[in-house]
Amino acid sequence: MIYEFAVSPSICGSWQNLRFLLSSFGKEEGRLLSDIPKNKWVNLASKTIKLSKNRPLERKRMSVGLLNLKKKSLYKRDFVPQIAGEKWIKHALAAHKDRPFRAILTEGCPASEKYVLTNDFELPEKKLWKVPSGCMAKRTAKEMLDPIKTMLDCANEVILIDRNFDPEKSRFVNFLEELLNYLSNRSYSPSIQTVSYHVGNRMSSEHIEYLCREHVAKKEILHGIKLNIYIWPRNELHDRYILTDNGGVKYGIGLDEDDGGSSKEVAINRISNDEYRKWWTECQKRTLSCQISSPNA
Question: CA-CA distance, 98 to 79, in Å (whole number)?
């Protein structure tokens, strides 16, 4: 639902192209723009704008647009292969080999690989360019997690929101275990030290801490990741979310498996920028209720 793309800085040479990137990239759009070569993409795109044949006023407007694009969608990998030469495409191909992008977008490339897309009128119809905004998934831990793995691959921070979370019930713990296992075994992504869970006040802080130690920590599913619990008034939480620092999704029913008494499927949808900012900001304000870690940590 949220994917990383490598985009040639040369595409920024016209306002039409830059406007297309602004409308196509960002958390809400489901596309992150990779900073390839590391810490250099914006400078390369800025150089493209300065060398373009646009009039000075147009170039100034494009530079502002570039800064907005950076703020809206630029994603920085922890590690990028260092190679000789200045050709952007060589850096992109090397980075893709190390850790695949959804696709590489260029103005034209001699590479014939299926993951290289050309910025032309056929682009909107290309399968790799299309990013689904939502899907239905069976309410099993694995199938509920599969649609968001590309989002989790880019995450430095993960927040779960479900007012009904109950660590005494296996249907919640099974999903949490699947998530923590995936985060702890990512091959290329940044290490996750903590996962935050925002829950309703169906029980006291002391009781939920006791249940988490009994049914989460003792099961050894944390994989060295600390679980931070934040307790809210239950009526302030309704929708269920998984948020990361690069976007978020909403789960229509809950962050739990089917227990035989409700729907067999759950709707999972990417959320808007406004919805994301609201919940991300609110979650950052909350006071930690308790922290759960592995028994031997």
Answer: 9
- 16 and 24 in contact (C-beta within 8 Å)? no
Burial class from Cβ neighbours inside 10 Å (0-12, 13-18, 19+) for residue 52 reads middle
Each residue's pLDDT, cut to its tens digit, for the chain (297 residues) gives 999 999 999 999 999 999 999 999 999 999 999 999 999 999 999 999 999 999 999 999 999 999 999 999 999 998 899 888 888 999 999 999 999 999 999 987 666 678 999 999 899 999 999 999 999 999 999 999 999 999 999 999 999 999 999 999 999 999 999 999 999 998 777 789 999 999 999 999 999 999 999 999 998 899 999 999 999 999 999 999 999 999 999 999 999 999 887 789 999 999 999 999 999 999 999 999 999 998 875
Which DSSP string do the residues of 60-118 spell out, in sequence order? Answer: HHHHHHHHHHHHHHEE--S-----SSS-HHHHHHHHHHHS--SEEEES--S---TTEEE
The answer to whether residue 297 is domain-embedded is: no
Q: Are residues 87 and 174 in the same domain?
A: no
Q: Is the pTM of this model over 0.90?
A: yes
* φ and ψ of 203, to 5 deg: -140, 165
Which residues span the domain enclosing 155? 134-292
User: Which residue bears the tokens 């682009």?
Assistant: 123
Structural domains in the chain (count): 2
Measured CA to CA, the distance from residue 157 to residue 174 in angstroms comes to: 21
Residue type, 67: L
Instruction: With CA atoms as reference, report the closest residue to 29 among 71, 70, 66, 1.
Output: 1
Ramachandran quadrant class, 5 (left: phi over 0; alpha: psi -120 to 50; beta: rest) = beta
Q: Which two tokens stand for residue 62?
A: 């494009």
Given 102, 125, 148, the domain boundary residue is: 125
